[in-house]
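Usage

Read records sequentially. Each one opens with the input sequence:
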Amino acid sequence: MNTMIRSRCSRALAICTLGIAVAGAALSRSASPAGFPAPDALSRLMSTYHVPGAALALIKDGRIVLEKGYGYRDLATQAPVTTTTLFNIGSISKSFTALDIAKLVDQHRVDLDAPVIRYLPDLRLSDPQATRTLTLRQLLSHTSGLPADEQWPQQVPPTRQGIVAEFATMPITAPPETRFQYCSRCIVLAACVLERIVGQSWEAYTRTHVFAPLGMTTASFGPVGLEQAPNHAQPYHHDPVLGPVPVPWGRLQYLDPLAPAGGIDASIDGMGRYALLQLGDGTIFGHRVVTADMLAELHRLGIAVGADWSPSAPTKNLHYALGWFTANIHGVHLVFHNGANPGFRASIFLVPSFKAAVVILANGESDRFTEAASRGLLEQLLH
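and closes with the structure output:
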């Protein structure tokens, strides 16, 4: 799973490094009169890349201009994707956990730069000095010095307590704040800090303090929450011989303990509102979720993403902030993340200076689909 996460994130980064001026040809040729893709344009991309169903949200000038479902959430029943169909959003979940922590910073209940052992005094790392100095900022920015995903055990422990116990055995592979090392379990540790401070689960806190203000009433967590939802997308893998094959729900069980890093299930209407929140001043529907200053802190250019992590693309403009990748391409600041779990792909791209965003959710395993669609849609939104 860890190697899979890394390779998929690397390919998603290539979207930005190629530049927003590179349009997705299929979408550009089939724009609707309003300047956005006609339904058959995205459908052709889905067919090309074997994606059964997808959902799309577009934001321009600070307002949602399109939310639409395409294809099927379940091929067996021919049930269509709608704007309320739930998809797993993968590692975009990391940005929700960063937002949770930001709310606690606003309330002066936590300090991003204080040692984590202030909040988790029983935490132990393999290096005593690292134990004393590890901070939430380092965890959320993947700069703790703890190793990247592919170096952790392949089998994820069934509980978050089990994940925290792993930290005592993992080597520190870089001095803190000197190297980007994408670490999903580090986000889980940050969520454990939150749980200790607020006295409730990360899921309960996220549901109350993020989902509720955004009206994400059907959003859920992990494979059980997704499978039990009446309007959920069935995950699919494309087999060259058999075609689309349903992914067993058991393959997603690791998302329960890893939920703060990859386990949120959401619909495109909810993710459209989430994008609006991220593009604004921290308020939604008159309710302040986070201060404008903390929202800016989440998006601020952070650690450079090195070529060793993303060898397929130029990296001089790629950085990681707090729960978000960032890039400055031709003078345009982009804030983005992708998600990849068995049977699902997701991407969210924010262009704050244009108050524009593209969000794509899919129940197939094609990174090329989300890349091609995002390129073309960003091109159209920014011109």
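Summary fields computed downstream for this record:
- The chain has 14 helices and 16 strands.
- Residues 2-18 form the longest helix (17 residues).
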